[in-house]
Amino acid sequence: MSASESRPAHFALRAWYAFRMLRLRSRVQPRDVPAVRSGDPLADRILLVGNGPSHGWGVVTHQLGLVGQLASAMTSRTGRTCDADLIGAEAMNVRSAMAWIGDRELRGDDAVVLMIGFNDALRFTSLAVWKRELRALIDGIAQRMRQGMTITVVGIPPVQSFSAYGSLAARHSEQHRLKLNAASEKIATLRGIRYMEIPTSRTRGAAGPQASVYRDFASAIADEVAPQLLATRPTPTPRAAQRDKVWDWSGTGAIVAAARHGGEANLRRLTEKAQKSFGVELAVVSLVDGDRLYHGNNTDVMPTSVPLELSFCKYTVESGEPVIIPDTGRDERFVDNPLVDVSFINFYAGYPLRASDGHVIGSFCLQGSQPRKESSLALDLLRDLAMEAQDVLRGYETEVALTTDPATPFMAPPTGAPVVFDDAMA
Predict the structure, then answer these.
(1) Residue 115: left if φ>0, alpha if ψ -120 to 50, beta else—which one?
(2) Which of the four pLDDT bands, split at 50, 70 and 90, describes residue 129?
(3) Phi, psi at residue 415, to the nearest 5°?
(4) Strand duo 194-196 + 150-154: pairing
(5) Residues contacting residue 244 through CB under 8 Å, at least 6 positions apart
(6) Which residues neighbour 101 within 8 Å (Cβ) at sequence distance 6 or greater?
(7) What is the structure's pLDDT at 25?
(8) Residue 207 in this model has a pLDDT that exceeds 50
């Protein structure tokens, strides 16, 4: 193991990256849904799985970011309409990418573009881990593809293209970025799929508008992907329109929509009070839907959603009880969790939130960078804040779901006794 991959260095890089993400919350970033919809039943469908440049730092809408620019560039080259979706977030890395894809039906897409690894380069993910996880990701996608669907692996672009990360980070990570890209090209070649790099000459860095960088990236990707698409789908045939999201709990849509614009006012007040009262970096109202956990606030620094299987709140929702994790680094459930590794969350406390029918729909949770003892947490205050948030959420219900089997964990009445996960229980 090299010095850059040693445990102390890895810890320092985790801390630096988490601090950088907190700083970036004040910068312009998209708040809208990362998708382009034409309404054309003949439209080509592109899925972009990405982080870093895919997220859209520096522009106010995803239409100006990579996903919007890619749909436009594809249309200009094929002469056909193009729908595009982005899966991923700044916190996604190569180890968590498949979880981020989750249960999405990939057979409806015509091409997948993988543009991951930006934070893997910045945080010095080891070459061995990169190779193993990239192989698994490509193979996992290929197993769910329909015949004729293509995959294109895009190399990690130069960090200096994005001034938000700083010149020191760019210089520090450049050689590692090149090593990861070389490994990616070899893996793609062995699997018979396309690999491409973004030409450095096309990037303009901090000197020009950020949208121009995304436009140049999209242009390069479209030059590679459009000919493949024309060859594999020469004569488009009509197909069913992509359906709107149907939420498991009726109020989720309104809360998620509000989160894109600062969050629902009362929930924001309660979480800000919790952050100050408990001395943590983040307090969040989260809502579970399918294989995703949606954040109802603080989405300026956190993704709108994360894979449920990688989240802390999964255990709060499943148990229907308060859950406290004093030190995530000492709990085997999370010590190797790729989402926790990127986000630098070392303390968690969550209290379940219930719909009017008693069903657990999410949690009111605290997340901090410093481990702390369970005894130091004022559970009564956490419960009071959670119950206030629960009342706010119930005001957004448009229908009351039928009560299911009360014996299930989701329906168990709250006892108030927290479930504490520590190293002794792991």
Answers:
(1) beta
(2) very high
(3) -100, -20
(4) parallel
(5) none
(6) 49, 87, 140, 141
(7) 61
(8) no
Answer whether 112's CB lies under 8 Å from 86's CB: no
Residue in this structure with the two tokens 């926790």, named with its chain if needed: 340
pLDDT above 70: residue 115 = yes
Q: Label residues 185-210 b or e (16+ Cβ within 10 Å = b).
A: eebbeeeebbbbbbeeeebebeeeeb
The DSSP annotation for 65-89 comes to: SHHHHHHHHHHHHHSS-EEEEEE--
Q: Per residue in 350-404, pLDDT tens?
A: 999 999 999 999 999 999 989 999 888 999 999 999 999 999 999 999 865 433 3
Distance (Å, whole) CA 267 – CA 390: 9
CA distances 73 to 12, 140, 292, Å, are: 39, 28, 30
pLDDT of the residue at 2: 41
- pLDDT, residue 409, reads 35
Structure-block tokens of residue 92: 């996604």
Question: Is residue 236 pLDDT above 90, yes or no?
Answer: yes
The answer to whether 123 and 17 are in contact (CB under 8 A) is: yes
Packing angle of the helix pair 379-394, 265-278 (nearest 10 deg): 170
Displacement of CA 351 from its chain's centroid (Å): 23
* pLDDT attached to residue 198: 86
- On the question of pLDDT at 422 being above 50, the answer is no
pLDDT value, residue 29: 83
- Rounded Cα–Cα distance for residues 106 and 49 (Å): 12
Structural domains of the chain sorted by starting position, each given as residue range(s) with its CATH number in brackets: 3-232 (3.40.50.1110), 252-420 (3.30.450.40)
Q: Are 409 and 316 in contact (CB under 8 A)?
A: no
Residue 22: partners with Cβ closer than 8 Å, 6 or more residues away: 281, 301
pLDDT tens by residue, 37-67 = 999 999 999 999 999 888 888 888 999 999 9
Cα separation, 161 vs 139, in Å, equals 30
Cα 148 to the center of its chain, rounded Å: 28
Q: Which two tokens stand for residue 420?
A: 């504490």
| Higher per-residue pLDDT: 299 or 243 | 299
Pairing assessment for the beta strands 82-87 and 360-368 based on DSSP bridges? unpaired
Helix residue ranges per DSSP H, 103-146: 118-122, 127-143
